[in-house]
Task: inverse folding
């Protein structure tokens, strides 16, 4: 999983969606996933809504289903803004603010 402060999408790989038996829906309005390198575009044709569990807390969120290299999932800025994610670069940790009070979740998530 990549916590990407430069991405506006929150996405999951089709293979992971299939392995996790996640129901996906075909999008009416297709959109292009523009990645950070030249000519790296992927057409997003499917999406899903699923529960993400982070440090024992559950977040229901929409995910694009798209192909990208090296990661099974990308968490982008829209999710991070909604949940007030703080990056602690010096300590290599991140902490969604809403996790601090929800269900006793108070620990920072290790950044990898």
Result:
């Amino acid at each position: 999983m990549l916590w990407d402060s430069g991405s506006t999408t929150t996405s999951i790989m089709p293979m992971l969606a299939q392995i996790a038996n996640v129901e996906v829906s075909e999008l009416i309005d297709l959109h292009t996933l523009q990645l950070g390198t030249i000519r790296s575009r992927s057409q997003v044709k499917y999406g899903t809504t699923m529960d993400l569990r982070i440090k024992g807390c559950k977040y229901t969120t929409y995910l694009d289903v798209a192909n990208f290299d090296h990661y099974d999932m990308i968490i982008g800025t829209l999710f991070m803004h909604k949940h007030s994610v703080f990056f602690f670069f010096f300590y290599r940790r991140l902490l969604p603010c809403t996790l601090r009070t929800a269900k006793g979740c108070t620990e920072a998530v290790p950044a990898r």
Strands lie at 2-3, 11-12, 25-34, 41-54, 57-65, 73-75, 85-88, 93-96, 109-110.
